[in-house]
Amino acid sequence: MKIFDLMLKIDRRIIYLVLAVVVILPLVIPSAQHVRVMPPVEKLFTAVDTIHSDKVLMIDFDYDPQTQPELEPMALAILRHAFNKRIKVLGLSLYVQPLGLAKSAFDQVISEYNSTAKTYEDSIIYGRDYVFLGWQPPPLVPILGMGESITNVYKKDYYGNQTDTLPLMKKIKNYNQVELLISISSGDPPLWWVGYAQNRFGLKVGVGCTAVSASDYYPYLQTGQFSGLMVGMKGAAEYEELVESRLNIYKRRKASEALPSLTYAHLVMMAFIIIGNIGYFIKRRQK
Amino acid sequence: MNISLDPWVWISALLSLAIFSFLYKDNPFYKFAEHVFVGAANGYAVTFYWHNILVPSLFDPLFRQGKLLYIISLIIGVLYFTRFIPKISWLVRIPIGITIGYYTGASIPAGIQANIIKQIQGTILTKENFLAWHAGNAGIIWSIILFIGVLCTLSYFYFSKEHKGVLKVTSRIGIIFIMIGFGAAFGYTVMARVSLLIGRLQFLLGPWLGIIK
To answer: What 3-state DSSP class applies to B5?
Structure first.
């Protein structure tokens, strides 16, 4: 039967074409999709929300251009949350490539806040409200070294300032002053933070990861080693939802906008898998 | 529609399209974009390492500030290049040995604690573990399923005894759990790849063509 042969041998270019159409259409013609917030993201939101005023939030930006679409919306949502609650932030990267993207995320959120700030106190000021430590290789060295002294590991920040001269860094010595670290990462860094900083220094670790890493990371959430987990674009959309609904911050929600495309793409993939399997079973029976 | 006039946006867009062209078939546009990417990434990394690591952390202290102890690091680092001289290439084992020794020593205790001890604790049937599932009374059920799943999966990987009798039953159940794991991993992989496609299309339709905001 010719039709069953076709079902088994659909040209991959047809699959790509159908996929492109179902991804592009919802982007061009946006439709509202309800974002249901799941407990792992809720947990992470609560962990950020309850950071004490004398402690800081540390964010490890470890995403590169390849994984930017999934992870950048997470970084923006967390920064909006932190600065809205006036939580002090320390940023860093364990790799070289994410540095520019991390700086861009800081710049975007800070310009959003400072464009509406009326006084100096209302504004987000570098050195007072946040510090971008930059990069120090190899990753193990800063992770272990910051348990003793952050300014010893990062003698200069990303902009070349002497870190021990910055007002915020005068109050922060090591992990004792860091209430939560969030690793926004496309690789293994969350496990390094748990292995080296949490086991040894008791640092709480939250994670924003790509969807590929999700099945590896869920066990660490269940054991309590992660204080919260955001997975892929869906996780980012959930955090965006919380930032909007709980904090009334209405900014562009890039991850939420992408959800309809993601849903339809999954449905198309499922349809092709079912078609292929039907063709396979019928052909096998015919033999 | 509001097409961008920024040359950098155009370069990004054309390179993205060149990479996408591989979906049709391998072609010179794809190869060109691939080579540009590899070259740019390596060039960026080499200059970054030189200006941000080697100069401030090694050459400045050693040659400008006279901290002679740093010469040990320099010599060990240089030994990596002996790989290219066949007669003394065995010397490369020294820096490799130091690196492996350091990383293995640091990672074994951390790995055992984070990946084995804590994970075993997470499998034990305690009230805290039931609550970790955020499923109310169903948390008990999920914890029991997890407990059975871990034991059965481990039994599948027990190859010292033939899979007969009880071991046959548990290993078969283990396979089901492994398959569920693979299914979840595949689903998440699809989600990740489609997300990346969406990100690129958001760029092409947004900043480049101005069709979406």
So the answer is: coil
**B189 contacts in A (CB within 8 Å)?**
211-212
Q: How far apart are CA B41 and CA B43, in angstroms?
A: 6
Interface contact B195-A23, CB threshold 8 A:
no
Tell me how far apart the alpha carbons of residues A166 and A131 are, in angstroms, rounded to a whole number: 8
Is any Cβ of chain B less than 8 angstroms from the Cβ of A154?
A: no
If you count them, how many residues does chain B have? 213
Query: B112-115 — which CB contacts under 8 Å span 24+ positions?
Result: B113/A195, B113/A199, B114/A191, B114/A194, B114/A195, B114/A198, B114/A199, B114/A225, B115/A191, B115/A195
Question: Could you give phi then psi for residue B193, rounded to 5 degrees?
Answer: -65, -40
Report chain B's terminal Cα–Cα distance, integer Å: 10
Distance CA A262, CA A24 (A): 10
Sort out which chain A residues have CB atoms less than 8 A from B181's CB and list them.
Answer: 215
ipTM, 2 dp: 0.87
pLDDT tens-digit readout, B158-186 = 999 899 999 999 999 999 999 999 999 99
Residue of A nearest to B108 (CA): A195
Q: Which of these, A138, A140, A124, lies nearest to A89 by C-alpha position? A: A124
Residue A11's SS3 state is coil
Q: What is the 3-state secondary structure (H, E, C) of B99-154?
A: HHHHHHHHHHHHHHHHHHHHHHHHHCCCHHHHHCCCCCCHHHHHHHHHHHHHHHHH
Q: Is the pLDDT of residue A175 over 70?
A: yes
Only one residue has tokens 């996780």, namely A235
| SS3 label, residue A210 | coil
Residue of chain A nearest B54, judged by CA positions: A137
Q: What percent of chain A has pLDDT over 70?
A: 100
Decide the pairing of beta strands A178-185 and A226-231: unpaired
Other CB atoms within 10 A of residue A19 CB: 19
The answer, for A266 touching chain B at a CB cutoff of 8 Å, is yes
Contacts of B176 (CB under 8 A, 6+ apart): none
Cβ–Cβ below 8 Å for A265 and B194: yes
Give the Cα separation of A223 and B123 in Å (integer). Answer: 8
> Cβ–Cβ of B202/A191 closer than 8 Å?
no
Pair of tokens at residue A221: 């959430």
pLDDT at residue A5, rounded to an integer: 78
Pairwise CA distance, residues B178 & A287, whole Å: 31
Beta strand A226-231 with A88-93 is: unpaired
Report DSSP state, residue A223. T
